[in-house]
Amino acid sequence: EGAFNYTVMALSDSSELTCSTAFSSCTISSLQCGTEYSISVLASNDAGSSKSSSAVTLKTVACAPGRVTIQEDPPGHLSVAWSNVDLGDYYVVFVKSDDGLEVHCNTSLTQCNFLSECGFTYFISVFAYNKAGQSPLGDIFNYTTAPCCPSDINPVLVSSDRVQIVWSPVRGAELYETKAVDGYNMVECNDTAPACTLSALECDTKYNITVYSFSEVRGSNMSCTPQFITTAPCSPEIKNVSRDAFSMINVHWRSTNDDATYTVTAQGEKGLYQCSSMGESCTMWGLPCGSVFSVTAVAETQAGRSLPSYSVPLETVPCCPTGLTVTQITQSVINVSWTIGRVAQTHVAVLKSHTGQSKCHTHQNHCLLGCIICGINYTVTLKAISATGLTADCSYQSYFSGACCPLGVKLYRLGPNGIRIYWQASRGSANYSTDLYGSKGIFTCTPNAGLSFCDVTEIPCGDVYTVMVSPVTETGLKLTFCPKKIYSVIYRGKRNEE
């Protein structure tokens, strides 16, 4: 009682704070956090000051924790640590992601762990608590996790030297780094778009392809999973195109692919022909004669299809002539004619027998063959040759040369108006026909088979006759190339020969 003024003193190890009032309370500001104060009150009036009251102890709220560190190790686990503060009984850490979701943890330790997701920015604040309450707000920290890794990498184009891949955009990525490694070499591309075309790759090669996401704050996410992609096979190289005696087309190539199937295509005006093989050669047949084709080869594996090889021209042999005709001109000369086949430029005709052969080479559709021996069998063959020298061997039926002309032809008068024609049969024929040509008509006589004479009756006497004895083929063809002889009949029983 009797006090006119009160003075409140707050003493700590480092400071002294006071407030004065005429009432029964006053406010002391600027207290320091994390500090223990001794509070006492002193009353005063005109007579002086009283003794100070018994002191009471006051603990302020703890200071905000400092030296806050944030780590993400391993990815997906966020660790927040801080230094211990004076008068802090426990701590609360608040973590709020940029999508608005907030989590917190209470601990008496100096570390808290949180689950985190890729591509998020987290805002982190740490508070200390004691009986006085919550510490003041300290620094708010933000931590951005590594951007997410693309998970749906899809190759949309795989060729022998390129791979184009696409993926869905991922959270937190500002740039994508794509790397393709084959063990020795690396090809990479960087782009902000969720797509990449890797070029200048080796054909038929297995690449380890990884797409890394990148952010300026956190850098690249190096935990992205690789994907293995094999490029399409290399183009084969056609080494040789050959033909065998049966008009088979054999194609040989060289390639370094593993487990590839090769398809060879011959394409031309007459159509398209193919053969396939897993080796280094295949055979085509049935290609039409006299045609030009372009031959290419491609390789195919599970990874894709190669580019076609460089084309190789293929010319098939000329077509064999048709309509072969053999005509005997004389006893030792025949004419062979034919209809020219497709792309044939010259022909070689050959008549062959056990006694030898006769041959001619011509650009026409016929030729004369001499030195033919009468009355024996020949084999007729014809070769068609193209402008580039390709040859088609064409075989035909045998040919029987005409029978030899008879020898010793003689004419005898038989009675008043009859003539007997006599001859000596030659090799190769048993059938003959005789013809008498006179001023009063032509008289023909055909003897029975095997006979070497023929009687012509009812002819006028006193005339001059031209007589020819001709061999007759099995088909009934009369060969009229034998020499003719002239006879004049002067009187009965006599003859005169010119």
From TrEMBL:
<dbReference type="InterPro" id="IPR003961">
    <property type="entry name" value="FN3_dom"/>
</dbReference>
<feature type="domain" description="Fibronectin type-III">
    <location>
        <begin position="149"/>
        <end position="234"/>
    </location>
</feature>
<protein>
    <submittedName>
        <fullName>FNDC7 isoform 2</fullName>
    </submittedName>
</protein>
<dbReference type="InterPro" id="IPR013783">
    <property type="entry name" value="Ig-like_fold"/>
</dbReference>
<feature type="domain" description="Fibronectin type-III">
    <location>
        <begin position="64"/>
        <end position="148"/>
    </location>
</feature>
<feature type="domain" description="Fibronectin type-III">
    <location>
        <begin position="1"/>
        <end position="63"/>
    </location>
</feature>
<dbReference type="InterPro" id="IPR036116">
    <property type="entry name" value="FN3_sf"/>
</dbReference>
